[in-house]
Amino acid sequence: MIPPKPPNEPARLANLREYAILDSLPEEEFDDLTTIAAQICGTPVSLISLIDEDRQWFKSAQGMPPGWPQTSRDLAFCAYNIMEPKNTLMVRDARLDPRFENNDLVYNDLNVIFYAGVPLVSKEGFALGSLCVIDHVPRELSQSQLDALERLGRQVIKLFELRRTLSEAEQVARERAQAYAILRDFSHVIAHDLKAPLRNIRQAGEMLEEDYLPLLPEDGVQLLHMIQERARDASQMIDGVLRYSQITRSLKDAHEDVSIPQCIAQAERQVSNGGNCRVTYIGKVDRLYTSSIALLQTFQNLIGNALKFNDKEDCQVIIDCIHERGRGYVFTVEDNGPGIEPENQQAIFRLFHSIGLGKTQSHGVGLTIVQRLIEAVGGSIRVESTMGTGTKFIFVIPD
């Protein structure tokens, strides 16, 4: 007798394929469950069977003779099992059951006489196959054995879900890597095809200002200055894209023992502080093991922003670091600048988010890079700010 098919068969098959498990290699976790099922039920054979369009395929097969990775669906006991997803199917003697009395699996080398199978039901509600046990003689299972088999069936589904989640995460990682590769390629296009024309525009503007400024009317002078300003902005944005696309390449270098005070001092020198802002480190942590490049560029950007947006005569940046067990190294970088409006405190980490503070305009590339650096070493960053008082960045680098 050929087994019937569920009324939702197309959707069921589509759901089965979402798990990308058919024809996959053996996995110890699934073999453990079939081994336990056979031991609990006292049977020589235990299977995790998935019902495909025209076959049943075994993800795990304990006690099966060699050369049986699958069978025809027309012969599959589990093809009947999926018809009633809420019920366990038990066949005491297949030779006496009209559904199986002429089934080749009963009389060939498999000698399937007794069968008990728990439907494997996905979280979407589709019966994908079954966890089943097989014996070569007529028998029954006790209620405790059936309960244990059903519990093991739920564990099989949990492994399916975990496997699918990991597969989806790997796909996201591949897509992200591809996107980064595209961004890197695009950065080369920007470097070669856009920077040169912009440089020519700026040079032409400088020549025009030098040779013809007295001949221009007032509105012409304003237009010339606007062209030069926009060219400078565009050039800075291009440089930001280049830095953003290339920044994590350096993180492939090995981590190392980093002196926090020396790292801060180096960051000060690179932003050309020149004593315009007092930077003080008050933390008790002197060293940590991390990416020196990530930490240096984070300090460089945060100290540079404090200097850039400073609106006080006495510019101050106070840096602290404490170690929290189970969390890592918690840094705070606090300035006494103008502060950031509440509606901008999350947006500042977006690439090219524009924010104006006083007379200074920022395109947000630096903070985007900082966030990417911190996340690349497994950490996180957030901001707290009060208008008129200052801004505090808190970032965590895990142990």
TrEMBL record:
Record SUPFAM superfamilies: ATPase domain of HSP90 chaperone/DNA topoisomerase II/histidine kinase, GAF domain-like, Homodimeric domain of signal transducing histidine kinase
Single GO MF annotation: phosphorelay sensor kinase activity
Main enzyme class: transferase
Signal peptide (UniProt feature, chain positions): none
Classification via InterPro entries: GAF, GAF-like_dom_sf, HATPase_C_sf, HATPase_dom, His_kinase_dom, HisK_dim/P_dom, HisK_dim/P_sf, Sig_transdc_His_kin-like_C
Record CDD domains: HisKA
Keywords of this entry: Kinase, Phosphoprotein, Transferase
Catalytic activity as recorded in UniProt: ATP + protein L-histidine = ADP + protein N-phospho-L-histidine
EC number(s) per entry: 2.7.13.3
Domain of life: Bacteria
Keyword Transferase: yes
Phosphoprotein is among the record's keywords: yes
Domain Histidine kinase, chain residue ranges per copy: 189-399
Database matches in PANTHER family: GAF DOMAIN-CONTAINING PROTEIN, SLR1143 PROTEIN
Name of this chain's protein: histidine kinase
Organism per entry: Neolewinella aquimaris
